[in-house]
Design a protein that fits this description.
By secondary structure, the chain is mostly helical. This is DUF3102 domain-containing protein.
């Protein structure tokens, strides 16, 4: 079975060498070692809605089906790149900065802290040297908590989202029971009926 890197490389080979679409694919291949470049390209695709031109219904679908990256990963990359654009413009635009930036997970922690009002611009400058030497996102989180207190708890999901999660769980259970020989058919049918009842709540 071909690896993700091989799949990305094969798709890139089908496109013109100078096309942005090929550059994004090539960026996806090496983003672990050069995430800033990939984040820049991915942000351009998102901002300009280029995924529409390439036949995808959404940015998330483009990331999943063409780049083989999850929605959460794409969000972290674009958030992290946006943070660099605001606070480290030279690093964000320079292809070979004198000092490589931290991992995108580390920068993403800072980006979310800023969005939550926990990291004013002047505080980032004070913490910059410590942060850039931090070994992990968890270490940055600890530094922020020690200095600014714990992050606020996220608001609870809305009712529709909660029901959708329950529906997904009910469907998985029903599917698992259907495939289990030790489970009587009547039990599997009750699980399917339960999933249908929850689906009605979601649709209603």
């Amino acid at each position: 079975m071909a690896s993700t890197a091989e799949k990305l490389g094969a798709r890139a080979e089908e496109l013109p060498e100078d096309s942005l679409r090929r550059k994004v694919l090539e960026g996806a291949q090496r983003f672990k070692s050069a995430w800033v470049e990939f984040g820049r390209l991915l942000t351009q695709v998102k901002r300009d809605a280029l995924w529409r031109e390439w036949g995808y219904p959404s940015f998330d679908a483009y990331c999943a089906k063409e780049l083989f990256i999850r929605k959460q990963t794409a969000e972290k990359l674009t958030l992290s790149y946006g943070f660099l654009e605001r606070h480290e413009p030279q690093v964000a635009t320079e292809r070979n900065p004198p000092k490589p930036p931290p991992s995108f997970e580390v920068i993403e922690v800072l980006s979310r802290a800023e969005a939550a009002g926990r990291l004013p611009a002047e505080s980032y400058q004070e913490l910059r040297d410590q942060v850039w030497e931090a070994p992990s996102a968890a270490a940055v989180n600890r530094q922020l908590t020690e200095r600014f207190g714990p992050a606020p708890k996220p608001p609870p999901p809305e009712e529709g989202e909660r029901l959708a999660r329950l529906l997904a769980q009910a469907r998985r259970l029903a599917q698992a029971l259907r495939g289990e020989e030790a489970v009587p058919k009547v039990v599997a049918e009750r699980a399917e009926a339960l999933a249908e009842d929850i689906e009605e709540l979601v649709d209603g």
